[in-house]
Predict the 3D structure of the following.
Amino acid sequence: MGLLTIIRKVKRKEKEMRIFMVGLDNAGKTTIVKRINGEDTSKISPTLGFNIKTMQYNSFRLNIWDIGGQKTLRSYWRNYYEQTDGMVWVVDCSDFRRLDDCRQELHGLLKEEKLMGASLLILANKQDIKGAIQPEELAEVLQLEVMDSSRHWKIVACSAVTGEGLLAGFDWLVSDIASRIYMLD
Amino acid sequence: MTTQALSPALEKKRAKKEERLQSHYDTYLNDATARRSLAAASSDPSESVDAFLASFSHSRDQVEDKLSSILSRKASKSDDAGVESIREELKSLQLEIGNMETLVANSSFYLPTYSIQSSQTSILKLKEEVEAVTAELLPKKKFSFRSKGAKPAKDTEKTKETQPAVAVAVSDSKPSIPVPSFYGIKDQHDCTLVRYSQDLEDREFMLTNLTNCKVYLKGKCRALYVNKLRNCQVYTGPVTASVLIDDVEGSTLMLASQQIRIHSTKNTDFYLRVRSRPIVEYTSSVRFAPYAFHYPGIEDALQAANLQEETGEWENVDDFRWLRAVQSPNWSILPPDERVSVDHKDVSEKTRKPNS
């Protein structure tokens, strides 16, 4: 009990959350982070490595680890699993061709022991594009029902370009993590 | 003098004393032997660990032998004594096992813990074996209550159990991905294809499985996915979000976009105008040059997509498979005298020198 209590106390004092943000390349992860932080999103290069963004969200400090999604980088994802409170999986809903790929990578992550306790927010991005897959369909394609009872998760439609849905998603994630970590005594 | 005078009396005393000691010793000896013999008599000969183990293993072997003989007789069907005799024998085996249990229980106060546990486990094993043989050889025909409600309940439980298994099985195979709106050009060869802004509709556009084709996209689209091209020329207007290219060989692509990702591509020339650093991955022998596509109205389209100015990012290529300071061997800059410029006004291409 000792160590866990200490960790909880430290975290509660700082009110910090570590959020791990992944997805296939071209999903819009960096654009989402920049958008919620109110930065320019027109000159974003594909992420080589990772970006860490620390931002104040309500009364919490979010450390968002935005990890590059290129195929070459996916094997490095596991270096970032440690102490993750919340996980954001970003999906390019206009890219039908790689939904299969997307599902496999996601299910690989769900099996990771270090991510077992993390809340999962799935952002169905690029809803501004005509013909984008709807979140209900996406949930089916990604076979999210498999983890129904074992994890806190939610799927939210969003657009990094218009900013729609981003706040709703992060609101849910932050309040879910908060209810797990900070209100538990 | 006095000693001599006293000596007969003393002598007597000493003799008496010695006699008394002797008798004490004798009674002590007698008592000891008596006690020893008493103890020997009272101790049960079976009250020794060795004796217990011997008798236990003997009865265990007997039970096992009988079991195997029953089984073999049943298997060979040489014995037609029938079910009844087998039932009798099995009953006697169960009795025997019961006796073994009481033996262990009675001996438990002097047995070491290990022996108690091991004998209990072997009894358990024997019981299970007997039960298994009983179940196998003597089918139950006895009456039992069966509620009708229980069966459907069991069925639903079964389906519940199998459903996740099905889901897992599905996840191994390819699920049916709904492709409600394929939008683009696919499965073409040896042709020239032109799409105008009203076709592009400001949405995502896909080019897939094309061979020996010329493709002109004269308008603005939202996102572009390029997949499986062989020996093609592709010239596009501005793409407002991103371009994703996968599996292209021996082609020329002219693209303007905010982000460009190039995967698994070989021997291809790219003419780019891009607002961020283009990237390549699993790619070799690709060359880069600045964008040079013209058609009437492209300036407005580029303006609308915020791509009107050349930022020079086309040459800042990141190779994700070459994370070193030295130039990646997988890509190079296309020499200026080999570059082309395409003007689709008259669907004609002309090669020209830059600055001329």
